[in-house]
Amino acid sequence: EIVLTQSPATLSLSPGERATLSCRASQSVSNYLVWYQQKPGQAPRLLIYDASNRATGIPARFSGSGSGTDFTLTISSLEPEDFAVYYCQQRGDWPPGITFGPGTKVDIK
Amino acid sequence: QVQLQESGPGLVKPSGTLSLTCVVSDGSISNNNWWNWVRQPPGKGLEWIGEIYHSGRTDYNPSLKSRVTISIDKSKNSFSLKVRSVIAADTAVYYCARRYSGYDYLDYWGQGTLVTVSS
């Protein structure tokens, strides 16, 4: 079973700053890595799939990179609405199923 | 676009069975999709529960497999979740979500429903 770890657990930044979030897999997932954003009281929102592809309607300030075991989500310049929790996710073939990382909270400094 | 809506009791007694339904709107449940359940305990992260294909094939989280059943009702364009022998640790917001076959991500989500396990 592939385990995902995320760092840091909390990232305290100011609007306009650059955010760099990390997700590490316990074994290679190729480029099959997904990122979600979740705000309080809301369902998760798909941001990035296949490590670097933005989902429909996601602003260009969000970008994803990486392959194998190390992945990064970058928010180039934080907007007030970007302060949220971010989860990475992968889907394994065996055992089949989806796993999520523990999340990184981006809060206002 | 696809819309999903969860429904079910918000309170379940310990040792009882949690039952939820997710109705799919604006998209046939028999299309090339996997229908998922994900939960989130208060203040904690996301946990995948399992998924079902329109053929009835299911995959479950190994940690929950012995207590969980996911089923599909094509006539009602809906799918359901049952969790047996619930304990306080099953208290969570339960989400239904869609995964298009061949892809790894969940692109459409319901709003979530809080289920509390308490006597």
Give an account of the 3D structure.
The complex is a heterodimer of chains A (109) and B (119). Chain A is mostly beta strands. Chain A has strands at 4-7, 10-13, 19-25, 34-38, 45-49, 53-54, 62-67, 70-75, 85-93, 96-100, 104-108. In chain A, the strands form 2 sheets. In chain A, strands 2, 4, 5, 6, 9, 10 and 11 form a 7-stranded mixed sheet that branches. In chain A, strands 1-3-8-7 form a 4-stranded antiparallel sheet, with no helix packed on it. In chain A, a hairpin with a 3-residue loop joins strand 5 and strand 6 (53-54). The mean pLDDT of chain B is 96. Chain B is built from no helices and 11 strands. Classes of the chains: A mainly beta (109), B mainly beta (119). At the A-B interface, strand 4, strand 5, strand 9 and strand 10 of A face strand 5 and strand 9 of B.
Give the CA-based shape of chain B. Answer: globular
Largest sheet of chain B: 7 strands, mixed
Task: Please give the share of residues in helix of chain B.
Answer: under 10%
**Which sheet architecture does the biggest sheet of chain A show?**
7 strands, mixed
The residue-averaged pLDDT of chain A reads 96
**Chain pair forming the biggest interface:** A-B, 26 and 24 residues
Sum up the overall morphology of chain A in one term.
globular
Show unreliable segments of chain B: none
Structural class of chain A: mainly beta
H/E element order of chain A: EEEEEEEEEEE
Strand content of chain A: over 45%
Rg estimate of chain A, integer Å: 13 Å
Provide mean pLDDT of chain B, rounded.
96
Oligomer: heterodimer
Strand-residue fraction of chain B? Answer: over 45%
Radius of gyration of chain B equals 13 Å
Order of helices and strands of chain B: EEEEEEEEEEE
